[in-house]
Specification:
Blueprint (H helix, E strand, L loop, with lengths): L3 H13 L21 E5 L2 E4 L4 E4 L14 H11 L10 H13 L5 E5 L2 H16 L3 E5 L16 H5 L10 H4 L2 E4 L4 H10 L3 E6 L13 H13 L3 E5 L11 H6 L5 E4 L10 E5 L1 H4 L18 H17 L2 H21 L5 E5 L2 E5 L8 H4 L4 H13 L2 E2 L8 E2 L6 H20 L1
Parallel strand pairs: 3-13, 5-6, 5-7, 7-8, 8-9
Antiparallel strand pairs: 1-2, 2-3, 4-10, 9-10, 11-12, 12-14
The structure holds pyridoxal-5'-phosphate.
Pyridoxal-5'-phosphate binds next to helix 4.
Length: about 425
């Protein structure tokens, strides 16, 4: 495989960019080698600067659920471009996207658009504190909620991949109100509530993607909902990854709970930088200009990004691809498990809707500690074998693979061949 141009750009990029990337997950830190540089993409495929073409299961870490350069999205964006790119004043597009989002989540009357998932979460946490008058937040180890100070503890994939326990530069005061519990362990949450009476909220990924795909048990998630109600704490579902991806109404719809505050991002921007947080009128009316909780953004609700969001969500609503995603994911699971078995590779597969994760371990993965039993070297070998066989995967054992609606019969056949060849390479090393 020729990667000369990527290598050249990597060297050049290292001069004025940090590690030649603008987000550490894009560095190939845990799989070795240099990151690939991308030239362009269309539908299910992405092409690097050396002309190598891959089936894309990264999809920009989730947003490109309709595949790249969807016709309808491209058209809506170019129409919006002709009217101007930013006004610092409200537009009808924001109202339209707000209606689509609020209609999808039963508990949500109002929404505020921001520019990233990180911003959505940091605002949601401020809102939970403003609403309850309490300070402490419970998060789960292995869940990632963006890079705000208070959430950068036990924070899943990016940090796990780089073997960082947290982040330098986070003052201890910034995390002293953050309590850590174990995913799928309700007792570990109850213990905090017994000790502290100033817990504002519990935040979680209702299905995780940032320690790999892990589903909550029914008892855990329903118990969490009941417990937070009983203790007058808010339940924040961080659906930045799962919103409009697991199901139109997010993971909440599939697992049958209703959050007090929902955080969104990734898919709602259709490939542009959009995040959002939403809740009932009662909670959202705390936000300025209606209430005393300040949160603002020069480019928030940007008209180009709103256009991409509206056309992406409208296409998803019309297509309703969620049953199909389930079928495709099931087929990929079957490919992975049968190849692993044939070649004597220890493998567990977790999946939820259009997110799927092979863990190179014998252990069922129900929390972050289980995920960490994975053989990350085997994953690295598998990752490069897949690249050589034309499949672009997230360069981390702890990151979900994402499906787009463009994965069809032809791509599934190619995936089956690539998986089989790659598993054979892993087993022979
Ligand atoms: C990606 C992600 C975030 C952060 O979103 P950014 O847009 O990268 O800031 C937060 N929470 C979850 C669950 C995510 O997957």
């Amino acid at each position: 495989m020729n990667t000369k141009n990527s290598e050249k750009l990597y060297k050049k990029g290292c001069v004025h960019l940090v590690g030649a990337v603008n987000s550490p997950v894009r560095a190939f830190a845990s799989v070795g080698g240099n990151p690939l540089f991308i030239d362009k993409a269309k539908g299910a495929y992405i092409k690097d600067v050396d002309g190598n073409k891959y089936i894309d299961l990264v999809l920009s870490y989730g947003p490109m659920i309709l595949g790249h350069r969807n016709n309808k999205v491209e058209k809506s964006v170019s129409q919006a471009l002709k009217k101007g790119t930013s006004f610092g004043a409200s537009t009808n597009a924001e109202i339209k996207l707000a209606k689509i989002v609020c209609d999808a989540f039963p508990g949500m009357d109002k929404v505020r658009f921001v520019n990233s998932g990180t911003e959505a979460v940091l605002s949601a946490i401020r809102l939970a504190r403003a609403h309850t008058g309490k300070d402490k937040i419970i998060k789960f180890s292995g869940c990632y909620h963006g890079h705000m100070d208070a959430m950068l503890v036990a924070a899943g994939s990016g940090l796990a991949t780089l073997s960082l326990p947290g982040s330098k530069g986070v003052p201890s005061q910034a995390v002293e109100n953050t309590l850590i519990s174990e995913y799928n362990n309700l007792e570990s949450v109850k213990a905090h509530f017994e000790k502290h009476d100033d817990i504002a909220a519990v935040i979680l990924e209702p299905v995780t993607g940032n320690m790999g795909v892990v589903q909550p048990s029914d008892a855990f998630i329903k118990g969490l909902r009941a417990l937070t109600k009983e203790k007058n704490a808010l339940l924040i579902c961080d659906e930045v990854m799962t919103g409009f991806r697991s199901q139109f109404g997010g993971a909440q719809e599939l697992i049958g709970i209703e959050a007090d505050i929902t955080c969104l991002g990734k898919v709602i921007g259709g490939g542009f930088p959009v995040g959002a947080y939403g809740a009932s009128d009662e909670i959202m009316n705390n936000v300025a200009p209606l209430g005393g909780m300040y949160q603002a953004g020069t480019l928030s609700g940007n008209p180009i990004a709103m256009a991409a969001g509206i056309s992406t969500l409208t296409a998803l609503k019309n297509k309703n691809p969620y049953k199909q995603f389930e079928k495709v994911a099931e087929q990929i699971e079957e490919m992975l498990l049968s190849s692993a078995k044939k070649h004597g590779v220890a493998l567990k597969v977790n999946r939820f809707g259009s997110m799927i994760n092979p863990f190179f371990t014998n252990k069922e993965v129900t929390n972050f500690a289980d995920a960490q039993t994975s053989d990350t070297e085997k994953f690295a070998q598998f990752f490069w074998a897949m690249i050589k066989n034309g499949v672009f995967l997230p360069p981390s054992q702890f990151e979900a693979w994402f499906l787009s609606t463009e994965i069809k019969e032809r791509e599934l056949e190619k995936l089956a061949v690539a998986i089989e060849k790659s598993m054979e390479m892993v087993s022979s090393i």
